[in-house]
Amino acid sequence: MQRDQLRERFRDLKKDPSGLLAYFALRRIIKKDGVNFRPADGFIIATVPPDFRPLSYKKAWHVLLNVDGDEWGLHREAVRLANTTNRKRTIEHEPSIFELRGLRILLATHINEVANEVRFAAERILSLSPPSADDVHATRRILGLPRLSNEQVSVLVGKPETTMLAGVMKPQWCADDTRALLELEHLDEEGPSLFDLPGFEEQKVWAQGLVKDIGLWRQGKLGWKDIGQSALVSGPPGVGKTYLASALSTALGFRLVQTTVGVWQTGGYLNDMLAAMRRSFDEAKATGGAILFIDEFDGIGSRPSRPTGRPNETYWQIVINEFLSLMNAPGEGVIVIGATNYPEWIDPAIMRAGRIEKHFKLGLPDATTRAEILRYYTGGALLFESLTELADDLEGKSAAALEELVRSARRLARNEERELQLSDLRAVMPERKSYAPEEQFRLGVHEAGHALIALTLNCARSATIEIKDSFDISPGSYLRGRTSYDLFDDNLPTETVLLNRIAMSLAGMAAEAAVFGDRSLGSGGLVGSDVEHATAIARRLVGSYGLGETPFFFATPEELDEERMPPALEAEAMEILRKQYERVLGILSREKDQLIALASEAVAHGKVMIERDAGLVSANSAAVD
User: Can you give the pLDDT at residue 94?
Assistant: First the structure.
């Protein structure tokens, strides 16, 4: 009966090449070193080779010991993992000194995963060697694949599990495959290094620290747990979140393992999503050094601050708990980078220290950075001063859009069989349309309203207005003027501060009403607009911060974005908006002459700055330049 069970287990193992490799490696150790893997009364701790998964060795040990993967009896499972991410209904979990009964083999990726008292109780601690050339030959023989030459096998030995499996599972090797496999580990390094790219200054500082720490880790002088291992990158589409992860992996000499929360969810069922999450982490662990890039990071969900017990809440509770478990021990050599457009939707527990330790907010590049990006992608072939002129007309363009623009320009040059010229870039620039004089003046009035109210209400030290004479007609492009502020710090905002911020947001619309008696749609229509910003503050003020007529908490600020408040609170928020709009309309109507003068100056010079008690400073002055 036992022999039949052993045959059945080995037949199952033949379906798993990684388990077969581990099986033959373990048999070699038993035969060569005389290791007794059947201790009479104790257990053995075994650390798997670097860049190999403990799960592969666990399957192999089940065959060698002729035990079931899950033993539902009086004894605990004979082969267990020191750090398991398994959350199925099994009795396996991380062992403590109180739960060692029936244990024969305890597998770990690193000895530090095992508690000190468990180490002391072990009969023996082993560091397992990776599969040898003989193990590769034996695995391919069992799989029914042609024998490889000794030269071909020598290329596989010593490589990470993923690379070794790629070679073992390839049915036929051709003449170029040996060279291709040697290059396989470096394919992710073909892109630029983060340190070569323009911009990303804050991320480069972090990466420089990682490069130093990873060097010490590879020398065995620093434990992986002492290295900052995770970050969140947030920002609107096109700002370079994926590009940052790829460039960081090149800078560190790591593989890039990409996935999305949407991919995890494609199975539909809870167990499918949990399994997909684990597979992504396992893939990263098996590379010997990887950036695990998880896009749509906000899709992991957020647990409600006040659970109701609805089935949907239970689903996400389990998902987030599993993800937290994976983040607590992502694996040796694994750096997790999450990317999202909506960082406020992420569960706060995920953002705790020890899990996601950094949060980088990426924005669209400014004019100088746009010129540097153009210079980078043109290979320094064009004068930087000329590129700066072009960059000024590319406001709102992402790094990806600028790269595509240079590619299009190079295509023009190739078609004419010549080198890239500035005229090629000019030829592929987005089409622009000029504002009519009255439209440009309206933009000036709108932005002047924001600036004057910011200084009048003591919200800012200074305000800078920028007005363009033309705009990019492509969809989603930047169409308006802009006002930027040097705001006073408000570490503990008061009710007055919040009301003043609402007033600032509504001031552009009020300025148009004061001067023209008519308002444009430039204040609303999208998330992030003036009206949306003002509305969000008003709703939070009464529904979350408790600063309405009656102190009352309805929901967190994040939850308010997703649901409607009771009618009384919504009405109170509407009243706050009405009063603040009337307030700024009154102020700007009284200061109509100053408003018109500032708008005229902004249109004439394109850029002006005003300071509290210092009057108006034109774009031609050193204060702006």
Answer: 59
